[in-house]
Design goal:
The chain is built from 20 helices and 27 strands. The protein is about 25% helix and about 20% strand. The relative contact order is 0.05. The termini are far apart. α12 packs across α13, α14 packs across α17 and α15 crosses α16. The chain is of the alpha+beta class. A hairpin with a 4-residue loop joins β10 and β11. The strands form seven sheets. Strands 6-5-4-3-8-7 form a six-stranded antiparallel β-sheet, covered by helices on one side. Among the domains are: about 130 residues, PH-domain like, CATH 2.30.29.170; about 140 residues, PH-domain like, CATH 2.30.29; about 110 residues, PH-domain like (Roll); about 100 residues, Recoverin, domain 1. The radius of gyration is 54 Å and the shape is flat.
């Protein structure tokens, strides 16, 4: 009899208990985190695998991608059919060593109507009762064992080689493999299938087998149809696809651009292609199956008899793969097409099946001249490229510039990439003969501008003579459909005659940057290549000896120094060569073999010019300038760098032209650029140390070559003709 649930009749479950903490349900087993509660009915265990030597790794690392495979079967009782009592299901059992999971996959059987594939998904499976609180481990699997999983008993008949080696390493003896019994019903169905006769025994070709074997195999041939015999006919190209699965053919035309033909999807749809084309067949002649007699009710329950001999059927021959070869002619519904080539798959197919190798056939096709596009003439608005853009598109775009050339030849620091030439007009007008111009060619876009400098008392206003733009060469029709030729930098050189907008110019000189640039890029300007100039000079002199040439130059050398002034050298070379050498080539020799002129403005004149500028500005703060210079002299040496002296003068707002100030300071500086600023203050002090100069200072500065921006090494004064003759007649 049970005691009533009253105080004093129940027992305290905590009596004798010493630990009152919460139960621990999670821990690591076999290096895998899992639930390890204190429930005695739930005791998960893992496979016990002996430890090897070396570093210990968790199971999911040591046994990654290692699976045991067993061949097994199970029997299923069949009670709803009298023709079979049981069925045998052949399966494959996979045991994953990393986490002791199991997966069972059933082998597929054709037309079985039974769900196949994975019948047990990968998971840990518990043992059958009464041990259902434990899971299957590797110790439960061996060849010959029977394993009960979810009510089905699986017989392990065999395993693969990896499984045999792994179980043998565990120290377990492998059982003997056994045969899987045959399924009675499957064996009975196989016997019935083999005994069945086809419905059409007269068909000798297995069309289904042909389709399954060549379902995705297509032969490709390239055809050519010569239709030039017809009116407006031409040579037309086609691509033929032969489908090996059903021996059908489709043809597609290759339509070139601007052919004027409609782009049809197919020239010939997929069908069997007959070899001979006759008249239209009578109804029923092309039927695949001929019905001889029909008896019984119409529709359901009716019967019919087929003509197995195909009596009266039309016998038609169709193209097969054996009839196609490169070089043969096909009859495509009355059109004779030549097979010229095929693809690599087709060549390999014929080489494997028929032992035939194909080579491409080249057919000479008539080439018709492509008419040139007629562009309307230039209308005078905008540039030629802008007008041409209106003909290329309904929505004209701005003309594209040569951006790479622009980035390479644009002004970059001191590299201006601009060639400047001094020019004069070739005219009979006495006024225009004395005019001088500066022709600038910009290498970034080959544009040319013309500037006229100031000339006193000329009556002509200086400034821009011609806008910067591309200049056309003379003798071209401006309003034509052809883009004219423009002057480029290669067309410009000293001694050249150019015509810019109907103004004839003669290039008489160039600046030092232009000469250096042309000599650096002598491949574009051959007249600046000293080797080519000497080679040309030697060819012009012909059979003249060195003594004859030397006598001609020595006759002009009155002092016998071996050098001539540039003017005499130019006249002598022109006389000896008969004017065959251009002005630029003579200048190239003079620059290479000449000695530079020594010139410069006297220091007294520069000092007088500086004092005159200060006197006109009424500058007398020389003491403040001394303090400013002394403030920069931290070491109290009495000397400063020329740049520091110039900065101090600019900070005092001295009204002296910057170029004049810089030039005067450079005269007082030594080789290291150091200036005695006390001497500088004494030189510019117009109040205490004036310099009496009676000449016209601006006129002296205006016509001095050094003052105009040239250096002392730029003006050639004498040319050594003996060195030239020595290099010319060397060897």
């Amino acid at each position: 009899m049970a005691l009533p649930f009253l105080p004093g009749n129940s027992f305290n479950p905590n009596l004798g208990k010493e630990k009152f903490h919460k139960e621990h349900h999670f821990d690591f087993k076999n290096e895998v985190p899992m639930n390890t509660g204190d429930d005695k009915k739930y005791k998960p265990n893992h496979s016990t695998i002996p430890r090897g030597t070396g570093h210990m790794a968790p199971a999911w690392v040591a046994f990654d991608k290692q699976v045991l495979q067993f061949h097994c079967y199970y029997k299923e009782a069949v009670v709803e059919r009298s023709s079979e009592n049981f069925r045998v299901h052949v399966c494959r059992l996979y045991f994953y060593l990393e986490d002791d999971t199991i997966q069972i996959v059933a082998n597929s059987t054709n037309n079985s109507g039974i769900p196949q594939g994975t019948i047990v998904k990968r998971s840990r499976i518990s043992r059958p009762p009464p041990n259902d609180y434990t899971f299957f481990t590797v110790e439960d699997f061996n060849v010959g064992n029977e394993v009960e999983i979810y009510g089905k008993v699986f017989k392990l008949c065999d395993c693969d080689q990896f499984t045999r080696n792994f179980i043998r390493k565990l120290g377990v003896r492998i059982g003997d493999p056994c045969e899987i019994p045959d399924d009675p019903y499957s064996k009975h169905r196989q016997q019935e299938t083999e005994a069945m006769q086809p419905l059409r025994p007269y068909e000798r070709i297995d069309k289904l087998g042909q389709y399954l074997e060549h379902s995705s195999h297509v032969l490709r041939f390239y055809l050519l149809w010569d239709d030039t015999s017809n009116l407006f006919g031409d040579m037309r190209e086609f691509i033929l696809h032969y489908f090996l699965a059903d021996d059908e053919v489709e043809i597609k035309e290759v339509i070139p651009e601007n052919a004027g033909r409609d782009a049809l999807p197919m020239f010939l749809n997929k069908c069997k292609l007959p070899k001979l084309v006759g008249g239209l067949p009578l109804p029923g002649q092309e039927a695949a199956r001929t019905v001889l007699n029909v008896f019984g009710p119409m529709g359901k329950g009716g019967r019919y008899i087929l003509d197995s001999l195909k009596t009266g059927a039309l016998k038609q021959e169709y193209y097969t793969d054996a009839d196609l070869s490169v070089g043969s002619i096909m009859n495509v519904w009355g059109r004779k097409m030549l097979i010229c080539d095929c693809d690599e798959f087709t060549k390999q197919y014929y080489k494997t099946k028929y032992g035939t190798e194909f080579k491409k056939i080249t057919v000479d096709r008539p080439r018709f001249p492509v008419p040139e596009r007629e562009v309307p003439p230039y209308n005078g608005f905008g540039s030629y490229e802008d007008s041409l853009g209106n003909c290329d598109s309904l929505l004209p775009k701005p003309p594209r510039r040569d951006f790479m050339k622009f980035m390479e030849k644009d002004r970059n620091g001191l590299e201006c990439n601009t060639l400047r030439f001094a020019a004069c007009l070739l005219t009979k007008s006495k006024i225009d003969k004395d005019r001088r111009f500066v022709v600038s060619c910009f290498l970034a876009d080959d544009t040319i501008s013309v500037f006229e400098p100031l000339r006193h008392n000329s009556g002509i206003e200086p400034g821009k003579f011609m806008e910067r733009a591309r200049q056309e060469k003379p003798g071209q029709d401006k309003f034509s459909s052809k883009t004219p030729d423009f002057y480029t930098a290669i067309d410009l050189a000293v001694g050249q005659k150019i015509t810019l907008q109907d103004f004839p110019f003669y290039l008489v000189d160039a600046d030092e940057y232009t000469y250096n640039y042309m000599e650096k890029h002598s491949s574009q300007w051959p007249q600046s290549n000293i080797d080519m100039v000497l080679y040309k000079l030697k060819g012009v002199l012909g059979e003249k000896s060195k003594e004859e040439a030397h006598a001609a130059f020595k006759a002009k050398d009155a002092k016998g120094t071996g050098s001539l002034s540039f003017e005499l050298f130019r006249d002598t070379v022109s006389a000896q060569t008969g004017g065959m050498l251009t002005e630029a080539e003579i200048i190239t020799m003079a620059r290479y073999y000449g000695s530079k002129a020594s010139f410069g403005i006297p220091t007294d004149i520069l000092r007088a010019a500086v004092q005159e500028s200060l006197r006109k500005a009424n500058f007398e703060q020389f003491e403040d300038l001394r303090k400013a210079l002394k403030l920069r002299d931290s070491e109290r040496t009495g000397k400063l760098h020329a740049a520091d002296v110039r900065k101090s003068c600019l900070a005092m707002h001295i009204r002296i032209p910057v170029d004049l100030l810089s030039h005067f300071i450079s005269r007082l500086a030594d080789s290291a650029g150091i200036v005695d600023y006390m001497q500088f203050l004494q030189e510019i002090n117009w109040r205490d140390y004036p310099v009496p100069i009676s000449c016209n200072i601006p006129s002296v500065l205006r016509f001095d070559a050094e003052w105009l921006g040239a250096s002392q090494d730029e003006v050639v004064k004498f040319v050594n003709y003996e060195t030239i003759l020595g290099d010319l007649f060397r060897g």
